[in-house]
């Protein structure tokens, strides 16, 4: 039933204006839909990222959104770091700067202002 259907990511935030500044300005995502109160719709590649206001924002302790960025991971990490994004470090992982290295894969994690974990997936075997 669902195997041929599109899917999208949805992220809860406490302050919609703060989230809009982060997702629109820092991440430079294309805000494509503001038609519902308390909801922002972003186009990311061929998918949608819905950002909505919720009292439960930031309670997820796992990845909320993953972007497959291919070989651009290092450039994207450098750009985001220049904009003040702080990258997460997880114990037991090997790093090259702010990028975790696992064989041909290069991975990075950071949080939005509400603590939602966002993940960049890339490297020679990605994309």
What features would you describe in this structure?
By secondary structure, this protein is α+β, with helices and mostly antiparallel strands. It has two helices and nine strands. The chain has helices at 16-26, 73-82, and strands at residues 9-13, 30-33, 39-44, 47-53, 63-70, 95-96, 99-102, 105-111, 117-123. It has a five-stranded mixed β-sheet, covered by helices on one side. It has a four-stranded mixed β-sheet with strand order 1-4-3-2, covered by helices on one side. A hairpin with a 5-residue loop joins strand 2 and strand 3. The mean pLDDT is 93.
Any key phrases for this structure?
127 residues; alpha+beta; five-stranded mixed sheet; four-stranded mixed sheet; 2 helices; 17% helix
- The average pLDDT score comes to 93
Summarize the amount of helix as a percent range: 10-25%
Number of DSSP strand runs: 9
Largest sheet, strands/sense/barrel = 5 strands, mixed
SSE topology string: EHEEEEHEEEE
Low-pLDDT runs of 5+ residues are: none
Portion in beta strands? 35-45%
- Strand ordering within the main sheet: 5-9-8-7-6
- Overall SS class: alpha+beta
Broad shape:
globular
Distance between the termini: 27 Å
Please give the count of helices. Answer: 2
Please tell me how large the radius of gyration is.
15 Å
